[in-house]
Amino acid sequence: MSTQTITREVEDAQATPVEKVRLLVPEIAARAEAADANDEFVAVNYAALKQAGLARAGVPAALGGGDADIRQLSAMLQEIARHCGSTALAFAMHTHQVAIPAWRWRHQKVTAVEPLLKRVASDGIILLSSGGSDWVGGAGWAARVEGGYRITARKVFTSGSPIGDMLMTTALIKPDGDSPPETIIHFPVSMKAAEVKVLDNWRTLGMRGTGSNDVIIEGLFVPDSAVALSRKAGEWHPLFQVIATIAIPLIYSVYLGVAESARDIALDLARRKQPNSDTVALAGRMETALRAAQLAHRWMLDVIDRNAPSADTVNEVMIGRNLVAENAIAAVTLAMEVAGGAGFYRSNGLERRFRDIQGARYHPLQPGPQSRFAGATALGLPTAGIY
């Protein structure tokens, strides 16, 4: 069956996002190995998801979207990741950029996000974020000029960059002299602007097909009217509490899916020969680590259900983030041992999962800041500057 036929059937189906994905996974899985081997962006897989209407899945129905909630989006990403981690992670970066304004529209009655969500629904635009440059501390410079700012920046880890339409990004307002920056501005950037250049420099251990290239912005004019938010530099803002609470559980759905698929592959390989007592014990440890990751991720989703982002929800989500990362990595490492030598062959798909799962180490909050944030919370100390 052709990709066009499959995606048309998915589009016509009255189904949840994860049910739609399950119709696409044979095609997605078939392309995963080549994208990984050749450092190629998973463009065809991404296009298939978009054609199936999944790029607008998180947009509220009243604004033209699929009306999927966070749990449905999480299940969607987790299922994609079972078959291609790169496709899932790249798609997660668009998905969370849709889920955040959708949550604000539903729960905070923020109408300013409506034009963006309608464009996602009607025009099919793909949103990008730069996880390596646009965290709480920000990156890049905004020089004040008449009517707005001139932006100079290098945005790293911009997943999906070859296919993106709009980068949701930030820059520090350039201070006078040697003074530290005081303000960060948030604004969208058209990826088609002449001042924007996507490098071809994503050569990595794992998640090789995400197209997470550096994006260079040189001299782009951003008018005052395009600045969505100005916030104090160097500390958390309420919007970032929303971002962290919602985005991180969606991103870590991907790593959980990778770990689950590694477990399945390992057990299949182990069953092909008579498991000895050591293999049985390793399988038990793998199951235990995977269950810990699953429980931690479920907790993260439960925190989102509170619908009250705050420093407390950031703390709880980031505890979950580190528990998912630690145990998902452990489960995949054990999967390599359960599989034995067969797991070392690329053709079995396990070594790709082992490489892909390493990406779980690098999203915020990494273990150092997360431990300090949790400790400060427990002791009743300030957390505004811990990120």
Question: Can you describe this structure?
Answer:
This protein has 387 residues and is α+β, with helices and mostly antiparallel strands. It folds into three domains: 3-125, Acyl-CoA dehydrogenase/oxidase, N-terminal domain (Butyryl-Coa Dehydrogenase, subunit A, domain 1); 141-232, Beta Barrel (Butyryl-CoA Dehydrogenase, subunit A, domain 2); 238-379, Butyryl-CoA Dehydrogenase, subunit A, domain 3 (Up-down Bundle), CATH 1.20.140. It has helices at 3-12, 17-38, 43-51, 70-83, 85-107, 114-123, 238-271, 277-304, 311-339, 350-357, 367-379; strands at residues 127-128, 141-145, 148-158, 166-173, 183-190, 196-198, 213-223, 229-232. Helix 2 (17-38) packs antiparallel against helix 3 (43-51).
List the keywords:
single chain, Butyryl-Coa Dehydrogenase, subunit A, domain 1, Butyryl-CoA Dehydrogenase, subunit A, domain 3, eight-stranded mixed sheet, Butyryl-CoA Dehydrogenase, subunit A, domain 2, alpha+beta, globular, 8 strands, 52% helix, 387 residues
Instruction: Report the oligomer.
Output: single chain
Q: How can the largest sheet be summarized?
A: 8 strands, mixed
The named CATH superfamily of the largest domain: Butyryl-CoA Dehydrogenase, subunit A, domain 3
> Can you tell me the overall shape?
globular
Number of helices: 11
How large is the share of residues in beta strands?
A: 5-15%
Q: Let me know the number of strands.
A: 8
Return the average pLDDT rounded to an integer.
96
Quickly count the domains.
3
- The CATH architecture of the largest domain: Up-down Bundle
Q: Give the CATH class of the largest domain.
A: Mainly Alpha
The secondary structure category is alpha+beta
Binned, the helix content reads 40-55%
CA(first)-CA(last) distance:
48 Å
The succession of helices and strands, N to C, reads HHHHHHEEEEEEEEHHHHH
Radius of gyration: 21 Å
